Amino acid sequence: MKRSSGIRLCVTVAVSALSLALITGCSDGGSDDAKSTGGKSDAEGTSQNSAKALGAAELTKLAIAKGDVVGYEVGSVGKTYPATKSAVTVDKAQCRPLAWAMAGQAPGDAAAATNKLVTEAKKTSATPSKSVEDLTEDEFADAFGAALDRTTTVVGLSSYDGDGAEKTFRTISDAVKSCAGGFTLVPGSDGTKYTKVAAEKASNTGDESVAFGATAVMEDTDGQTGTVHTEVVRHGSTLVTYYTVNLGALMSQKAYTIPSVVIDAQSAKLK
């Protein structure tokens, strides 16, 4: 049995799929801590035009945390995603809000922002009953894909003064339409080209929400495409972005979605 060829194939596909998840490759660090300080939120009934953004500390307390979602691990984004918005370069200016949301960054000029990485716990069924040496090529490929078959979601929170949240939300909603033909993320000399952006069914949580899928052709897969999913929800003066990827599903061409339990858990903390 030519195990090495199977390993190379699976790793190649996994790495190609992973390129969809990494917006700009490795960065200098995550942005788990809120980046700047804003004022405290106004009392209930205050108009959006005079609303105050949540402060950095308050926003961080409202972010999804360990123990909030059963079956999921919550931690810092670390170096997997860009540390700042400036690290996210896009070839079309109108598509920047989409790229920022996909990177767990504030999609607009926020007063404060923070993010978390929420990963589905490893499934027990992903562990093969045989040792690796005894697996056939097909069994190895299935086991490898099953091990990666779990969602990873970057949850980003950003807060805005006045009607900043509403205006930023509109730029995202508009971009889903104007960027339907795709856009290219350019990390350094390389780039990930998304060929299509399409509206998807949103969760209808918060005051308003919009969801979209971004599709790209994965390298070394004979034209095989993969779609990553993003949703943006406005809760008053705060926007929450959810960017989800499932490497195992991308490899096997199976459909997957943003986990509703993650959205529900985060939304509950903002009510």
Task: Give the strand order, joined by hyphens, for the main sheet.
Answer: 1-2-3-8-7-6-5-4
Mean pLDDT: 80
* Total count of helical runs of at least 4 residues: 7
**Main sheet characteristics:** 8 strands, antiparallel
Structural class: alpha+beta
Report the portion of residues in β strands.
15-25%
Q: What percent of residues adopt helix (DSSP H or I)?
A: 25-40%
How many E-type strands?
A: 8
- Ranges where pLDDT stays below 50 over 5 or more residues in a row are 1-47
Element order: H for helix, E for strand: HHEHEHEHEEEEEHH
Distance between the termini: 57 Å
Shape descriptor reads globular
Estimated radius of gyration: 19 Å
In short:
Helices cover 27% and strands 23% of the residues. By secondary structure, it is of the alpha+beta class.
